[in-house]
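User: Reviewer 2 asked us to show a designed sequence for the structure in our supplementary figure. I'm pasting the structure tokens here. Could you produce the per-position amino acids so we can include them in the response letter?
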């Protein structure tokens, strides 16, 4: 007990030192370079200390002007005051801190239940919070009136011997069925560590708060009023929140609360410390009508007196749901139903009503109007001939801004495409034409540019032509192919006309096509010229020619005597000398597969002297045998086809002539043909 009394002044002094340091740090940050007052900051009112000032709350609230209620872009403040006056819902607080010079407040009444004793609390709460910097805010909250009805007074005990055995930590000295009086006041500071408004993914803040009873002496606090304890409490809270886009905001609060020890007038009551927690959500975030849900509670822990007589140690758990109606962007009207989940043996229903105030959402200043544009135009080509397309392009400064373009022309067909246009000069008469461009930035800035396009009468260019012939030399009867390549620089249609010089060189298959063929059959040998004349539809023409040669045909081939075979008198045997000669003939026939052979056998009736002369038939037969035996050697020994050999007989000395007849030649010599098959081989 003595130790607790000893540390109580130390704890209070420590808190005051922390508060002074926080306020001083916030003031220095507020006045430091680079963090000057914003355009919406309020004038400051001096508190008497040199160099220290706070925003004037009256000026602050005077400037909280909402948007027109009929505006479709209404946005309610998302930093309206909670029951403590800090930005939040009702019993849960936001991690997002007020900006420098901003303020929030709340004025509420709430009812809730606690056990043991079936206690029903009806509180009037009000509070104010001011932002010293964009990350530091200080707050003051008070419960100036509390009404406490005890429905089950038999569940409570009041110390007759200096100790309590059945009590509620919220009002341990409650002893009558109906109590009322001022409850507590508190001061606090909240330090923003992370802020979604500054680009972090979620909000995080650290809060310190001292809660002080209005009646700290035992007579007033316990014996007269009894609506609260007589000892201050100190809280350290961690606040977190997360925006859900425009859908809403989630809030998470956890904290530690030290409740102190009552040691007065013979009463010794060491109250347990407690772990406070809360979760809440508001939705949508900026709407005129918003829904709010909350879950809050606390769990006592540590050393201290425990109430276990009736229901066990109190662990309050409250569920709250309701609405916030925002008639103005900076003010909300709140109403909610509160249910005490861990308060049996009493009416668990409660409520919360009140007004909340907060800075309206920042309205961005309209951006400055863009600088007046300047426009320059260029054409892709000029002068041009009628029918040509001309591209007109533009360059605008400053670039990269949204612009609207419009184009016009003094002649021709114009196709627009943003900052460029295309002029079709088809059908335009020669002359000078102007294309004008106009640009508008939609903010009152505009500029014009113009470019000239000259249309000239087209130059009449004649066509061009070139000729070739393949082959460049032929024999009579072969074909010559004359080809012409022609084009019109002005893209005019062309006609072709061919002539041949001399005309006796042959006959053309056509005279009006780019390619013609000359049939030289019967043509006069010598040089031949193919001449082409190309003419466009304006009568302009070009000519070209190409030369070839019709060769003089060579003389027709002649039959030639290849060899003469000698035979003995009255003999048709082919001896070795004859065979050697026939070998040469066979080689010539093999080298020229189109040639033929004619063999003429000769014989006389008086080849053997002093013998009887042969009859005419025998003489003919001997001549034929000599021709056939020579043929057989070529066919059987040398593989010459029999149909390539013609045999004849003639009247003459004992020999056989072998003639080679090339293709195209004819044998016109002596001898008569006969059937070789009648000769015995």
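Assistant: Here is a per-position design you can include in the supplement:
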């Amino acid at each position: 007990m003595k130790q607790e009394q000893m540390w109580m002044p130390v704890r209070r002094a420590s808190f005051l030192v922390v508060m002074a340091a926080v306020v001083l740090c916030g003031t220095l940050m507020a006045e430091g370079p680079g963090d000057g007052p914003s355009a919406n900051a309020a004038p400051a009112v001096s508190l008497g200390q040199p160099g220290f000032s706070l925003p004037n709350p009256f000026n602050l609230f005077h400037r909280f002007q909402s948007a027109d209620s009929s505006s479709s872009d209404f946005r309610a403040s998302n930093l309206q005051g909670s029951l403590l006056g800090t930005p939040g819902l009702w019993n849960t607080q936001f991690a997002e801190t007020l900006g420098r010079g901003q303020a929030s407040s709340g004025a509420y009444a709430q009812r809730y239940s606690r056990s043991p004793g079936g206690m029903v609390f009806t509180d009037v709460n009000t509070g104010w919070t001011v932002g010293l910097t964009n990350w530091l805010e200080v707050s003051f909250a008070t419960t100036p009136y509390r009404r406490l009805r005890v429905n089950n007074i038999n569940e409570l005990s009041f110390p007759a011997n200096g100790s309590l055995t059945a009590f509620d930590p919220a009002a341990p000295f409650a002893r009558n069925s109906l109590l009322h009086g001022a409850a507590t006041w508190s001061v606090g500071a909240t330090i923003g560590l992370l802020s979604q408004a500054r680009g972090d993914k979620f909000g995080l803040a650290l809060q310190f708060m001292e809660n002080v009873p209005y009646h700290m002496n035992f007579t007033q606090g316990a014996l007269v009023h009894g609506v609260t304890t007589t000892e201050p409490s100190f809280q350290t809270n961690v606040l977190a929140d997360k925006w859900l886009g425009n859908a809403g905001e989630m809030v998470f609060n956890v904290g530690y609360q030290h409740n102190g020890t009552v040691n007065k007038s013979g009463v010794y009551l060491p109250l347990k410390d407690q772990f406070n927690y809360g979760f809440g959500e508001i939705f949508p975030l900026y709407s005129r009508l918003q829904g709010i849900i909350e879950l809050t509670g606390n769990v006592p822990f540590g050393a201290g007196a425990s109430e276990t007589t009736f229901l066990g140690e109190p662990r309050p758990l409250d569920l709250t749901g309701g609405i916030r109606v925002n008639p103005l962007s900076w003010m909300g009207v709140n109403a909610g139903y509160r249910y005490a989940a861990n308060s049996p043996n009493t009416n668990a229903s409660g409520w919360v009503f009140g007004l909340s105030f907060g800075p309206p959402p920042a309205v961005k200043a309209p951006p400055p109007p863009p600088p007046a544009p300047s426009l320059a135009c260029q054409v892709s080509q000029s002068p041009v001939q009628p029918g040509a397309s001309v591209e007109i392009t533009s360059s605008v400064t400053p670039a990269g801004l949204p612009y609207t373009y419009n184009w016009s022309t003094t002649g021709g067909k114009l196709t627009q495409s943003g900052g460029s246009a295309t002029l079709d000069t088809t059908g335009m008469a020669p002359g000078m034409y102007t294309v004008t461009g106009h640009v508008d930035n939609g903010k009152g800035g505009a500029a014009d540019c113009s470019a000239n396009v000259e249309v000239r009468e087209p130059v009449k260019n004649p066509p061009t032509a070139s000729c070739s012939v393949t082959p460049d030399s032929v024999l009579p009867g072969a074909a010559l192919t004359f080809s012409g390549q022609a084009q019109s620089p002005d893209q005019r249609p062309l006609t072709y006309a061919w002539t041949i010089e001399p005309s006796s060189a042959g006959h053309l298959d056509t005279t009006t096509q780019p390619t013609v063929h000359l049939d030289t059959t019967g043509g006069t040998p010598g040089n031949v010229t193919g001449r082409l004349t190309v003419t466009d539809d304006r009568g302009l023409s070009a000519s070209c020619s190409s030369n070839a040669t019709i060769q003089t045909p060579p003389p027709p081939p002649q039959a030639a005597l290849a060899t003469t075979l000698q035979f003995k008198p009255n003999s048709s045997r082919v001896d070795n000398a004859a065979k050697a000669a026939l070998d040469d003939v066979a080689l010539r026939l093999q080298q020229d597969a189109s040639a033929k052979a004619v063999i003429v056998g000769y014989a006389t009736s008086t080849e053997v002297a002093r013998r009887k002369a042969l009859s005419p038939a025998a003489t003919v037969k001997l001549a034929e045998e000599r021709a056939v035996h020579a043929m057989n050697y070529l066919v059987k020994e040398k593989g010459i086809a029999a149909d390539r050999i013609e045999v004849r007989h003639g009247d003459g000395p004992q020999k056989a002539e072998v003639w080679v007849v090339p293709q195209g030649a004819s044998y016109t010599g002596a001898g008569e043909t006969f059937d070789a098959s009648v000769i015995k081989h």
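For the response letter, you might also mention the following. The two ends are 163 Å apart (CA to CA). The chain has five helices and 37 strands.
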